[in-house]
Amino acid sequence: MTETGHPTTHDAAHDLRVKAYFTVFIALSIFTLVSFIANEAVRQGWIDLYTSVTIIIAVAVIKAILVGLIFMHLNFDWGKVYFIIVPIFILGVMMMMVLMPDTVIAWQPSQNPLEPPVSTTGTR
Amino acid sequence: MTQVVYERPQEHMGMPLPTPKVAMWLFLVTEIMFFTALIGTYIVLRHGTPAQSPFKWPAPHQVHLIEWIGALNTFVLICSSFTVVLAHHAAVKADMKKATSYVAITLALGGVFLGIKAYEYNSKFQHDILPGHIGESLPYPAKGGGDNDLKAIEREKHEHATGMQYFHRVQLQLEAIKKSSIDAEIQKECNALLDAMTATTAAEGQAVAFHRPPSPAEVGERVNEILEKAEKKGVTLHLTPAIPFGNLWASCYFAMTGFHALHVLGGVVVFAIILLMAVIGRLGPQHSTMLELVGLYWHFVDIVWIFLFPLLYLV
User: Fold this and answer.
1) DSSP state of A109
2) Among B241, B64, B233, B249, which Cα is nearest to B170's?
3) Which residues, numbered 22 to 61 in chain A, qualify as contacts with chain B under a Cβ-Cβ cut-off of 8 Å?
4) Is the alpha carbon torsion for B219, B224, B225, B229 positive or negative?
5) Which end is more exposed in chain B, N or C (fewer Cβ atoms within 10 Å of the end residue's Cβ)?
6) Which domain holds residue B42?
7) Among B182, B203, B233, where does a domain finish?
8) Which of A28, A39, A84 has the CB atom closest to B26's CB atom?
9) What mean pLDDT comes out for the span B189-209?
10) Rounded CA gap, B43 and A96, in Å?
11) Does ipTM surpass 0.90 in this model?
């Protein structure tokens, strides 16, 4: 505030920030409710499982982006820290790809150890 | 003589950010890697369950996870993220009274989150949903005939050691239930199962006849039936259920939520220190950067839970 009581540009910017924080808080609460409802919708048979999973994961990603951009100020700092963050995400995806063959692919039908053996001679 | 002096723009070494903030971001990326490993492993293990098996990854209700409690905890963390960002904002405006109030609310919300988590953990202990305790085998569904019998035998052979551990655990639990005083019908069923497992009972006046004790898979099936009946009657039984992939689920659940709760606890301790500083009058506008850094950490903890909640409770 100035001495005359008029708000300064600085004050206006602060108020805008608080408004942004509040908007994100409301959005995050609504998104949490959306993911909860999407889960319930599968039980009620309104939507199929894959649609529900897509909605729930998409909502989680949007929530994380909102927290990162507004609460963690990445909308200002992204240009200064992206080179620390981006490689980590690449490494994270790579880690999952490395784990994949040992677990997911190991259970493919042809390699399933719990399958009864198939006889090649005609006698079992 | 006139000389022209060219001023070269000053070159800055290092990052275009304050050093503490760089340090916090570097710390956070190591944390991102840590939780990516945990969450990634969980996703891969979950999708690695055999596609052809009739047994699926445990559903939340099987492992006593209540969705609305998870959603409530998500809301609590979102609220705390909002209050911590307001605390920083107030500190930047040198309104330390407001900043202190917001820190106190954040601390309280962190405590509420941990309290709810403790309640959930207690439920897991009561139902014995713990890594290494759960029965992994259940008889294959009757439809399908001989092929399913073969699969069942093969599966039990693979899981013989863990199956026998489960068998003995349930036997001890049933013996304890036999000595306790609970609902008569439930106790009767428990005693019948115990008798079948010990294979020593006989009708009065008859010789003890040998009968094949139930396999761990059959024990698991009977235990699940008893637990279902007990739940309908509102009786709490300390009897370990049989849930295929249950031990894997429990390991993942406790690893992910346990490490997350430790991070929440860490944040709560820092907020308590800040509050203490405020109480003794040592918190001032010069600490706004510190509040921003703690806020960054707290938002990261919130983001981790944003992914843990749907992965464990919903999807």
Assistant:
1) G
2) B241
3) 22, 24-25, 28-29, 32-33, 35-36, 38-39, 52-53, 56-57, 59-60
4) positive
5) N
6) 19-48+69-132+246-314
7) B233
8) A84
9) 73
10) 9
11) no
